[in-house]
Amino acid sequence: MPTPFPSIPLDILSAEGQDANPAVQLFGRRFFADQTVPELLIELLLVAASPKRIGNTSLPVDRTIPGLDSLCDWPEGQPLRYSPRARLNLKLFAFMGASKLASRHSSHREHYISLLAELQSPERLRPPEGVSPREVVQTLENLFLGFQAIGGRRTWCAQAFTPICPEVLAGDTIWNETEARRRGVTTWAEVAEKMPQFFTVGRHRFVARGGEVLYLQLCNALRQSPEQIRGWCEEADIGFGEDERSPERVRDALEVGLRRVLTGQCPEGVGALARFIDQVIEPETSQQTDCDDGGQPRFSDCGWCPSEGWPEGWLFALELVHVCAAAVDPIERLELMQTACALQLLRSLCAQSARYVEWAAEVREYAGPLGFVWALSDASGDSTPAKRISQRCVSRLQRLIREALRHPEIEEAVARRKYAVEANGKQANDLYPEADTRYGHKLFLSVAKRLGLIVPRQGPGARFVLNEHLLRYLVLSLLPPGKRVTYEGFKDLMFAHYGLAVDDRRLGASSAWCGRTCLLTLGGEAEAWFMSMLEAAGFLVRLSDADSLVQNPFVEAERQA
What we know:
By secondary structure, the protein is of the alpha+beta class. It contains 26 helices and 17 strands. The strands form 7 sheets. The chain has a 4-stranded antiparallel beta sheet, with no helix packed on it. A hairpin with a 2-residue loop joins strand 2 (52-54) and strand 3 (57-58). It is globular, with a radius of gyration of 25 Å.
């Protein structure tokens, strides 16, 4: 069974145990199908930006990542705790007007009108001549609504902002409609009197802990010794430089990068406006949702990740460092970071599963350093051999994840939980159907399809492909800004980080990983489409007298000088 990081007690045997599901036992608490790709990044940045504690020891408020002293001396049994804000006033102000009519409770409408009136009062707002207060307020509403990341069918309080600054990051908040109807509440004053009964904070229904797992994976990787990291890189034959093998340098670079994303990309006035709307014009709501009965900040416990998964966490850290340092548009950077989070989820499912399936060890010589392969085919499907290998690879990966969830030790834990639940006179439901569909191989398939990494979206014949966005992400995340590597070296990096196979040699080996014969050649044209994509995107530099180069040109102007 995986050893948890942090080493907190696991809740496996109870009827409602957070760690009872086989997939949670294997992959950590938790990657979940109901959490969208944007919410993975939102939650990761929420943990990074919030006040944090390890147990009861507070960490410096200006740090997005704990220092190496805290990471390497993590106390036994103590979770990572953080204090997210609910941002109810800000969400109501931005999303109420765009929410479905059926989801607008009378108390919400009353408070919304009250917020608007307070904001438009002469004490709060002094618009320029010829502009009415209402016009200013409508402009502000449109401004914050424009940063909506997740909405759709959800009520206003369950929606989320694009993480443009720390002041718009918010934890999970659920409106308890049934409780409000049962108690017959109609006004916000009645809601505010017993806020925890009507708004559930921290249930993790939508912001469902996936971002917490990603954050803990970073912490787990950075606490490894330089010798262990160097040894793994040499064993895996990954040619990282000294800066990329140093926990101290990578942690510092990640700290700078995350701080830049959180505070250096958005005008300060936007964050100040968000804070003013949420906490100043009506402070009672934020006080009720963000603080406990004693008026102290309300902290939430993070879950855990498998400690043995630090290699994929290390690769994730390097990728984030490169993306954060690239000279790209701030919104594009956030989109690239969303892709990084989703690919890390997929990589984690595959790498952790490969550690717990016997046949994966037998074919490891054909796999990447993390024990799996993603065999790429051209999007048009013109190369029939590559297409068929890729289809077999998708099926093989689904089987890998499914079989890992049925490891004997996990099955034994599931059986012990069933016995314990039934001994207390309760019905013990079968956990495996949900493990497969919402946590396991079907989660892998659905997230990969959302990214465009696997096509088609529906129907048979699923296979791995690359689109322009994924190709751009690979160049910006695998290479530091301004760096060039040979074309062969770039393929080596793709294979090392994600097990991505694109050429004859690695696709032939992928066939063996899938349980078929190892092919010596696919005709020599399997990767022509890939070179064309790199060249069309401006990343490939063809040289007449040497190997072609792949470059990341997104370097800051002052660094170029």
